[in-house]
Amino acid sequence: MEIRHTTEQDREVFVDTIHAAFAMHPPTPAEDGGGVFWAAYEMDRNLLATAEDGRAVGTAGAYSFELTLPGGAIVPTSGVTAVGVLPSHRRRGALTALMREQLTSFRERGECLAVLLAAEAVIYRRFGYGPATYTARLTVQRHRGALAVPRARGAAEAAAPGSVEVVRRSRCVEALEEVYDRYRRAQPGAVSRPHRWWALRAGQPPVAEAPRYIALHRDAEGVADGYASYAVDSGVMTVDEIITTDDAVHTALVRFLIGHDLVERVVLKHVPTDHPLRWRLEDFRGGEVTGDTDGLWVRLLDVPRALTSRGWFADGELVLDVDDPFLGERDRWLLTVRDGKAECVATDREPDLSLDISDLGAIYLGGTEPSRLVRAGHVLAHRPEAAAVADTLFRADRPPLCLHWF
C-alpha cells in the first residue's frame, strides 16, 4: 500500500473514493464546480491510499483554518476531513498509515494543533484527538416560548437597539461572511470560514446554497451584527445557527424566531450546553434539550507551543506527564502561568497529572474539566489537589464552541 499526496488531477478519484467509503452518491456540482461540500477541498493537502494495483482505497484531507483560542489568540490549524477507507480494504492498516502521514505533514507545516469533527467517536482518540467542544439541540414549543421579562437591574436597558429583517440567503452572503468573521475571532473554539467556502457555496447552510431564509439583525447604525439561518417545513422551524457576539442581539433573534407565524415548534440545532437561552424562557420547561453531543476534537502536535499560545486566567503551575502512544512519544512538561502568559519547559520533576495526548486535547480549550477526566479514570492525579488546580488553570474566558461544519 502507498500513501501519496494528491494534486488537482486527483480530485475526481478522491471524491469518488470518499463517497464510496461512506456508501454515498455524489450530486452533480454546478458549472463553476461549486454548490457541493467538497468544492473547497485543498487538493495539495489531501492524501490518497492506493493498493498494489494502483487503485485508490482510502482518503484523508485537510483544510487550512485559523482557530481562536481562549484569550483571543488566533493560530493556524489543520481541519481534518474526508477520512475514509473502502469497505473492501478496512482493517489492513490503511487508516493508520493515512493518519500517521497526515500528522507528519502537519508538523512539517509548523502547526501545533489539528482539529476535526468526528463521524464516529470511537475512532479518533487512538490518533490523539480529544473532544473539546459540545453542543445540544434545543426544541422550543412556540406556545410555551414566551421570553421572560428581565428582572436584573439594568437588564431592560440592555435590549439590543436596531432591527431584524428577513432576507434570502442568496442576497446577503457578504453580510453573513462579515458577521461570522467577527464572531469567530471572539469565540474560543471557532474556526475560520475562508472566503472561498462562501464563493463556492461549500459545506452546509448558510454557506451552502440550500434554500434558507436569514434573520439579519442590524444595529442602530444599520450595520449587520448578527444573523440566524432557518427553514420552515410543516410547522417546524429548523435553525442552522445563530451567529452574534452580543447576548442582547441573540435574544432579539430568538424572539423573532419564536414569534414566527405558521410555526408550531422551533428547533435550534446547535446550542452550547451552558447557554442561558432556557433561562430566558418564561416557562423553563418550554425548551427541551436533546442530542447533547461533541463538536470540535483537538489534537496537540507541539505541546509547549500549544500551551503557550492560548491565554490563561489564573496563576499556578502543573507538571504534566503526557503520553502520545500513536507517535511513540512521552514527555514531562512544567507548565507555569503568570499574568495570563504560560511557560512550558521539559522537566524531571514528579508529575501532578499523567494523561494521554487526547485528554490534553480535550481540556485544552477549557470546555472539558480535567477533574471530570480524573473521575472518569482517563487522567491520573498524583496529589489530591492537582485536579482542582488543573480545573482553575485550564478554564477559559468563555466556553469554547465550533459551529462551522467541515
UniProtKB/TrEMBL annotation:
<dbReference type="Pfam" id="PF17668">
    <property type="entry name" value="Acetyltransf_17"/>
</dbReference>
<keyword id="KW-0808">Transferase</keyword>
<keyword id="KW-0012">Acyltransferase</keyword>
<dbReference type="InterPro" id="IPR000182">
    <property type="entry name" value="GNAT_dom"/>
</dbReference>
<dbReference type="InterPro" id="IPR051554">
    <property type="entry name" value="Acetyltransferase_Eis"/>
</dbReference>
<feature type="binding site">
    <location>
        <begin position="91"/>
        <end position="96"/>
    </location>
    <ligand>
        <name>acetyl-CoA</name>
    </ligand>
</feature>
<dbReference type="InterPro" id="IPR041380">
    <property type="entry name" value="Acetyltransf_17"/>
</dbReference>
<protein>
    <submittedName>
        <fullName>GNAT family N-acetyltransferase</fullName>
        <ecNumber>2.3.1.-</ecNumber>
    </submittedName>
</protein>
<dbReference type="InterPro" id="IPR036527">
    <property type="entry name" value="SCP2_sterol-bd_dom_sf"/>
</dbReference>
<dbReference type="Pfam" id="PF13530">
    <property type="entry name" value="SCP2_2"/>
</dbReference>
<feature type="binding site">
    <location>
        <begin position="83"/>
        <end position="85"/>
    </location>
    <ligand>
        <name>acetyl-CoA</name>
    </ligand>
</feature>
<dbReference type="InterPro" id="IPR025559">
    <property type="entry name" value="Eis_dom"/>
</dbReference>
<comment type="similarity">
    <text>Belongs to the acetyltransferase Eis family.</text>
</comment>
<dbReference type="Pfam" id="PF13527">
    <property type="entry name" value="Acetyltransf_9"/>
</dbReference>
<dbReference type="InterPro" id="IPR016181">
    <property type="entry name" value="Acyl_CoA_acyltransferase"/>
</dbReference>
<dbReference type="InterPro" id="IPR022902">
    <property type="entry name" value="NAcTrfase_Eis"/>
</dbReference>
<feature type="active site" description="Proton donor">
    <location>
        <position position="124"/>
    </location>
</feature>
<feature type="domain" description="N-acetyltransferase">
    <location>
        <begin position="1"/>
        <end position="156"/>
    </location>
</feature>
<dbReference type="GO" id="GO:0016746">
    <property type="term" value="F:acyltransferase activity"/>
</dbReference>
<feature type="active site" description="Proton acceptor; via carboxylate">
    <location>
        <position position="406"/>
    </location>
</feature>
<comment type="subunit">
    <text>Homohexamer; trimer of dimers.</text>
</comment>
